[in-house]
Specification:
Elements lengths: L2 H12 L3 H58 L16 E3 L20 E5 L4 E3 L4 E13 L3 E12 L2 E13 L4
């Protein structure tokens, strides 16, 4: 007599719940996969926001250097120093935007850590109108006899990532003498 033939009805009875177990295992694997995909999507959206903020900060820092260059070009070097705008030739820490105007002498506000605002109507960042942003811009000017060193430093926070900073440096020389 075959020992398996006597167990055959017994094995059939055991398989009745096997489909349920297989379905639960398959559902668990599918759930874990979907949770993984959802986590990757959330992380991807966050990192794209971080990258967008880094790009914006880089442009804001470059803009700070360009604003300073405009003032240097306007004031020039008068033989005794680098003009009126930079604390009568001593340099300092400032925060200013395009609202300072096109004619000097400029009165440049000292750095106070004021966050920049974004004006959706003009598409510009400024200190007066618009929606508050996480960006602050420090424009540090160091004046030497024949050179001005400008550091435009933008600090910001994106979500849980704090103390992010971009520093753009440029040098302007007295080439007229």
């Amino acid at each position: 007599m075959n020992p398996l033939s006597s167990r055959a009805p017994f094995l059939g009875e055991r398989r009745k719940g096997q489909s349920l177990v297989e379905a639960m295992v398959a559902l668990s694997i599918l759930t874990i996969g979907l949770i993984g995909i959802a986590t990757l999507l959330v992380r991807s959206f966050f990192l794209s926001h971080v990258t967008a903020d880094e790009l914006t900060a880089t442009y804001l820092a470059s803009e700070g250097v360009e604003l300073t260059k405009n003032i240097v070009d306007h004031d020039g070097y008068d033989g005794n120093g680098w003009g009126y705008s930079f604390s009568q030739g001593n340099g300092g820490d400032y925060e200013f935007d395009y609202a300072i105007g096109t004619t000097g002498p400029y009165v440049l506000p000292a750095y106070a850590g004021t966050p920049l605002k974004y004006d959706a109507a003009t598409g510009r960042y400024n200190y007066e109108t618009g929606t508050a942003t996480p960006f602050t811009r420090l424009i540090r000017v160091k004046v030497a006899q024949n050179e001005i060193t400008v550091n435009s430093i933008v600090d910001w926070t994106t979500g849980s990532i704090t103390n992010q900073s971009v520093n753009v440096e440029d040098h302007f020389y007295n080439w007229r003498t």
